[in-house]
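Retro notes
What went well: the complex prediction finally ran end to end.
Inputs used:
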Amino acid sequence: MNHLPEAWGRPRDDVYGAYDHSHLRPSMPNQHTQEPIVTGTSVVALKYNGGVVIAADNLASYGSLARFSNMERLKQVGTHTVVGASGDISDMQYLFDTALEDLVIKEEYQNDGHHLRAKHVYSYLSRVMYHRRNKFDPLWNVLLVAGWDDGKPFLASTDLLGTTFSAPALASGFGASLAVPLLRRVCPDEESVAKISRERAIEAVEECMKVLFYRDARSTNKYTMAIVSGEDNKVDIEWKKDVELQKQSWKFAEEIRGYGAQIV
Amino acid sequence: MFRNNYDNDSVTFSPQGRIFQVEYALEAIKQGSAAVGLVSKTHAVLVALKRNAEELGSYQKKIIGIDTHLGVALAGLAPDARVLSNFMRQQSMSSRLLYNRPVPIARVVNAIADKAQVNTQHYGRRPYGVGLLVAGVDETGPHLWEFQPSGMVLEYRGAAIGARSQSARTYLERNFEAFPDASREELVLHGLRALRDSLAQDKELTTANVSLAIVGEGEKFKLYDGEEVADWLEKLGSTQSSRGSRGAQAAAAPAGASGSGEGGDSMEVDA
Amino acid sequence: MTSIGTGYDLSNSVFSPDGRNFQVEYATKAVENGGTSIGLRCKDGVVLAVEKLIQSKLLVPGSNKRIATVDRHVGIAASGLIPDARHFTSRARNEASSWRKQYHGAIPVSSLADRMGQYTQAYTLYSSVRPFGVTCIIGGVDEEAGPSLWMVEPSGVGWGYFGAATGRGRQAAKAELEKLDLPNLTVEEGVKHAARIIHIAHGDNAGKDKDFELEMTWVRVDKANVVEVTESGVVKGHGRHEEVPKELVEEAEREAKKALEVEDEEDEKMEES
């Protein structure tokens, strides 16, 4: 019998045969996340003269199942910034509740008059995303960062590959196909931001949320909106929570062929 | 050989609660030549006196640029300053890479302070033997910090370290109220006058022994050496200490190791 | 028994024949030379105050802060070697941060104080390190206990307090703290007493000719973050550590100076009679 301490409490080799170590070194290569599990759909955002409007609906889907209907996907970071996330919800929760919370607390306790603004939060997030993709273990999200920076509205996105992109109108997920063309009609380029009022921007984003609900099967009719507005270096963030889509009209559905109780 | 039983290492408190090894490290700063720093509302300036070991040798570098918005002047062990300034450069780079932001001056200063403190609490290490003046500009304006081997860092409106720096400090104390509204040129001249006051009686400021650095809001950190300081010395006029015989007295005083030699230099800066 | 010359005081982690660890006692000496720090545990929050001695008029006024924020709801005021205090707070921040990562919530102040006590004590165990030359007052408000105040000494010992004082003016400060009905004070009242006590402590010791700045912070619970108010008025919830607003500090200091003048006059009358 083996009396050596490392064998204590183990099945005896002479009774059970030698210990099978194979599970410690699997024959397969290490596998990380291959797909998102619980997901959030589009985030929509638009710059205007004096700020940014950003919105995301409150649904978290499990595959095609509408699993959680009260999942907010926007987070305020510090005083200048709102981040919106689509894609994997648990990755989003890691970013929002752990990574960004830690970042903000560490910034606050310095107490030296410096604050993280939108471009700093955006830079940080894009580095994290790119770092994770280089570990072949990406955070499965597309993130939009909206805020007020250097006396100007700020809007930019980063995704699970660490790609960075900026435009006056941005949307993630289904919205990248459906909302962006609508928003570009309102705001084709950076110059036109100056011509867009706050009301016009809110209206345009509301319209996008509605169109997305019409056509995106993973969306819902309840959403959260944040309006980041600034004047010089003063920033105000207005939150609209649990907003329901107004004035829906499903008349267009009759025109659509290919599903439902249609005869022809 | 040792002065007492409590000064062999930096992990032994004396019965009075002092750490002699740390206090001796502070003395190393006074072995180095003087450096002066000062700030206005728009600029931060460093000036320093360079020394050469021998007539034909080059002068020891006294000011090190860290990033486009900050730099340091040193007094004491130059190799230690290189270690610290390399670390500051890393901090500065990582701030730009991670946050897309030039590192706030206070934070890079606190980072080296924390590094230095560890060396005063663990056996087998020695405290850094160098004092630094860190000057820079960030979003909250121009700043000047003094770093000490004890891990103490303090923000100043004007500061001087190194040999005979008490005289420079006296000049700063008499004139600091004019610094905030001083122009770029006035601020540099205040710095040079303070440095000039720390000279020994037979010495003068020359293009060979003066280093000067300026950083401002919208003005990148720039180091001026050699002929580049000629214009400044011309504007200064007299390049010899104006303190007359007082300078000679200060020079004659031996560098005391009691820790009470120059104000605020003991580790217990809180007292 | 005296410590000096016996050899038992030359290394950390060594007991003397009568069971003392002199290096820890010497570290405490460093604390006793530092500027006074105090903490008040009031019913709806905690007040921290320090006497920040000003070594040179060239220092930037209001800069070089001595009270540090550790997490949203906790602050630390320290007396003694300032670099050691920075090390201590840095460790406290790491503890608070790792607690958040593990438990997804704010660390209870008592747990933080406990962990910091253990960390400090570890620096008395080995001859390869020296003890911390600081005594730290840890104050905060949490969900479970409401306002709480702890003081950790170089030995690693840590107690909970209603009123804590350390540094060179601690005796005078303690005497004043004992006169207060701390469990029933509000933080607003606490701020006024804290300002007065720091001024008294400053006048009571050798450094009284030196200038000082009064630095004060508090931890309170915003209305929106209150979890529970007990019958005795103790507020529990998510506290926030921040500087006491400037106007309040100035007002408290004005009143403190006035109170001190009145006291001086009374003393003079006593002497005359």
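What we learned: The first helix of chain B runs from residue 20 to 31.
What to try next: split runs per interface for comparison.
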